[in-house]
Amino acid sequence: MKHSGVLKRHQIDSAALDVTDALQEAGYQGLLVGGCVRDLLVGQNPKDFDVATDATPEQVRDLFRRARLIGRRFRIVHVRVGREVFEVSTFRRSAPADDAPVDESGEQVDRVHDAAGILLRDNVFGTLEEDAFRRDFTVNALYFDPSTEEVIDFVDGLQDLEDRTLRLIGEPKVRLTEDPVRLLRAIRFQAKLHFELERTIAREIPDVAGLLVEMPAARLFDEVSKMFLSGYGQAAWHLLCEYELNYTLFPCTPADDELIDLAMRNTDTRLADGKGVTPGFLFAVLLWRDYQALMQQALTQHKPFEAAAIAADLTFRNQQPITSIPKRISQFAKDTWALQDRMVTRAPRMIARLMSQQRFRSAYDFLVLRASAGEPELQEAADWWTNYQEQNPEIQEKMRSALAPVQNGTPKKRRRRRRKSAGAGSSSSE
Ligand code: ATP
Ligand code: MG
Predict the structure, then answer these.
(1) Ligand 1 centroid to 35 CA: how many Å?
(2) In which element (H, E) is residue 32 found?
(3) Residue 223 lies in a domain
(4) At CB < 8 A and 24+ separation, what contacts does 309-316 make?
(5) Where are the alpha helices (DSSP H) in 179-242?
């Protein structure tokens, strides 16, 4: 179960080695574990380096100058070295709920399950071997000791890596019930590694889908964000749809929407090129159809501008109980949506004002995306904006005046439209 020669010390990030070395020099175990070992073994770049130790969180904190205890569900220590942060977690064991320590009042203190068997807290420390068995997938339970250059494998994870199989440790039903988010993790790893999901897991999906919505909305938001913003969003979205979990997480988002597909692909490409991505944009895409449908309903009772605001609020209010989206992200999406109509209409005297909007860039990207994903009638407006941004002020001026007769129709028409919308039409901020 100890394997030499599969992984070398020099493959490890030097700051991560500082952490494991410091732990070992202090007489503790200090091993790398999880995604970093897995990814290095399949020739991918690890996203981060997780450290496992037999030192308690307090002992870890006292050992490092820049260390902070975090977490409640899992108490771990964040250790900073230079600009990097490492998660150091103490070996834990997984035991039946009734095996956990009990405080004076009879409450289990360190491991807490809810009535459905979902694990709410898990802070019962254990041995290295016990720690391996409480992890989710066998390929995530491989440890690397940088001083001996040995990979430690209690769960046949190396074999599964070789077979390219994602296998849960233990009984899939039990492991997925105690933490349904493992299903989303499975999808993320499947998307990233192109591994096969062990068949017994697939069988559990319909049952787990029901449990998934019971999970804290903040955790689901984190997991969904990771799924779509880790560079394999398109593949993850396809898998989510294949397992029909897209409706669990986004009840009103269709599976076969080119808009989402393209946006995920663009996001993956940007990440691969080392560019930044904005979660707000992706949520604008994911919830766009829902927003459009709600807008149609709202338009039966409200003026366009009000209908848009009502629909946007409602879209996020409906989504909030599933994945609690932070305000700055929902606001980003709402602002992006709100500019869409005006980007298409292009009232000449609104052009400068539109361009000075904080979310102009995002609204422009969104328009371009819509034009290429099933709304070809928007292509002309999208091209116009692309062109406009590249021109000098003189040509821009010409472009604006060329818009006027086409976009505003006859004066008569224009007057009528303005009166009707009472300042609340698509050119709301006029
Ligand atoms: P990546 O960092 O590339 O997203 P990872 O496997 O390192 O993948 P982390 O979320 O960083 O994922 O978790 C580190 C390790 O902790 C995992 O590899 C796994 O061993 C364990 N782990 C994380 N989440 C769970 C969970 N929900 N249930 C059981 N073990 C988990
Ligand atoms: Mg990790």
Answers:
(1) 7
(2) strand 30-33
(3) no
(4) 309/338, 312/337, 312/338, 315/287, 315/290, 315/291, 316/287
(5) 181-193, 199-212, 217-228, 233-242
Q: Is the CB of 132 under 6 A from ligand 1?
A: no
User: Does the annotation count 48 as an active-site position?
Assistant: yes
Final residue belonging to a domain, choices 133, 160, 187: 160
Residue 421 lies in a domain: no
Neighbours of 95 (CB within 10 A): 15
In the chain, the amino acid numbered 107 is E
Q: Which two tokens stand for residue 168?
A: 């849960």
Residue 117 falls in which region: left (phi positive, over 0), alpha (psi -120 to 50) or beta: left
Quickly state the pLDDT bin for 374 (edges 50, 70, 90): confident
For residue 10, being part of any structural domain is answered with: yes
Closest CA to 136 of 194, 80, 74, 84: 74
Residue 138 belongs to domain with CATH number: 3.30.460.10
pLDDT surpassing 60 at residue 396 = yes
Domain's final residue, options 160, 187, 204 = 160
How far is Cα 205 from Cα 62, in angstroms, rounded to an integer?
43
Residue count of the chain, please give it. Answer: 430
Among 39, 50, 177, residue to substitute to test ligand 1 (most atoms within 8 Å of Cβ): 50
CB of 146 shorter than 6 A to ligand 1: no
Residue 179 has pLDDT above 80, yes or no: yes
Residue 345 CA: distances (Å) to CA of 80, 341, 419:
51, 6, 17
Distance (Å) of CA 274 to CA 142, 207, 231, 341, 379: 28, 38, 10, 32, 28
The model's pTM is 0.87
Instruction: Please say whether the beta carbons of 189 and 236 come within 8 A.
Output: no
22 located within any domain? yes
CB of 135 sitting under 6 A from ligand 1: yes
What are the tens digits of pLDDT across the range 75-85? 899 999 999 99
Contact 322, 212 (CB under 8 A): no
Domain range spanning residue 378? 339-409
* HSE of 251, CA atoms in CB hemisphere, 13 A: 11
* Tally of domains in the chain: 2
